[in-house]
Amino acid sequence: MLRLWLGRARSPARRRSAACNLWLAVPALLVAACTRVEIEDHSLQFNQATGSLGNRVMLLNVVRAAKGYPTQFSKVTSYSGSSRADGGLNLNIPFIGGIVGNPNTAFQGAVTPSASFKTGVSQLQMADLNTAETQKALRKPVSARDFAYYRTQGWPKALVNTILIEQLMVEPRLLDALKRAAASACEASDSRECRWLRSDRTERCLAEAKEERASPDGDVVRVFTNNPRKQCQHESFQWFFTSIRVLPSASLDFEPKVDTDECRTSKALLRDLARSTKDGKGKSKDANKGPSETVKEGKVSVEVNVKIAEKADKDAEASDKENEGGSIGLVIPRNLAPRNDPPPRAFAALDRLRNEHLCILREGKTPIIISWRSPERMVRYLGDVLAAQAFGARKRGIEIFNEDGYPVELFRVESGRGPDSGSAVSVEGPEGDAYYIPVPNREAKDAHLSLQTLALVMESFNLAVSGKELPRAPTLFISGG
Fold first, then answer.
1. Model pTM above 0.90
2. How wide is the angle at C-alpha 289 spanned by C-alphas 287 and 291, nearest 5°?
3. Contact 353/181 with Cβ under 8 angstroms?
4. 352-396 pLDDT per residue, tens
5. Which of 9, 89, 249, 375 has the CA that lies 20 to 30 A from 49?
6. Range with the largest mean pLDDT of 76-85, 125-134, 335-344
7. Which of 187, 166, 231 lies closest to 205 in space, CA to CA?
8. Burial label, 417 (beta-carbon count in 10 A; 0-12, 13-18, 19+)
9. Residue 274: which of 302, 300, 298 has the closest Cα?
10. DSSP strand E in 171-218: where?
């Protein structure tokens, strides 16, 4: 093809000119092609490097937290370097002898292409994230909106529950109704979740980790602390969500719309009735406490005293500020059609649970109070998980149920240099020992969730710091770029 292209020139002079133009174009094309490959290659390498750096920094701080060391975070804010390719030709064109008076003599000529390359990052700017402003952002708890987002975007629900929630406070009446509903739903089920709920170990942990305290409303509530260092506290926390999981059509939703008028217990109805009494009606000896009403219920006479105070409005305003990110509530559909699995009695227990939940709301109480975690606390929580499985006399893996109903490890980290086949993430700890996350067997239904756990914590962490003005970064100069 080259010969055909050159042959189209009408004279030897023009053919020589075309050939010269071709040789001049080759280095330029070579340089352009190399530049494109270089940009693409180095962009991918930089992306891989920063991704690997983020994973390793996070794992390093998890190891630090597990061993009681202070955490230390930094971030690459910018980088600069040179990525240049230059090319040219050194020409020594042959002179025909006729030009210098001797047609039989010719001087030898040469064409020498040249190219020079300079690549690599020569400067990195790092941000120290341990400043007051950044730490304040990292210590701000996530919200119900974040919880709802992750649960509806394909993340394993048990993983989201475990990472984002620090503690639950549950009304005892709701808890009792939940126990009965879960037990009824599991009567005819042999699922892994139901077997776990019925196990003696789970029952023993519920009794051992039982904790009660006063809620912000002043009522006695049951507390579920999500603490992996204490096995029974971890399992009791998982019991609450697993119990909801086995209920047909029940869920935890973001700002659910519920109709408290459907409450069918007398206590809440009496409260509304007392509020609606006219002046002079239904007064009792406790009239200074507010209006009251005596109502006959079977053979029992019940007198309800309701205090009317301005405190209710202040509490509502404070609650609005506290829940700027929304709220999470239990949702159970009404009038579920009876099915064989679970048995019909399970639906009766489920209906009682729904009614109890509505009545607690109607009384002005919060059935489930959630304490959210901050991104900084999420890192320390993973440190607690690592400490539970790697240190101490009772080493154990911290397990949750995955979406297929299999109990799987939440966050598996092993010590040593890792297998010959490689590891997903590895790092050298503060004491010189090595830790790594093994590559999960993705074909197994019970594969550990370590990488998803790390990804969720990193995403929450990055969201907290990305919108903030980062501190002035020191510049690192790298030689050999």
1. no
2. 55
3. yes
4. 999 999 999 998 889 999 999 999 999 999 999 999 988 766 677
5. 375
6. 125-134
7. 231
8. exposed
9. 302
10. 212-214
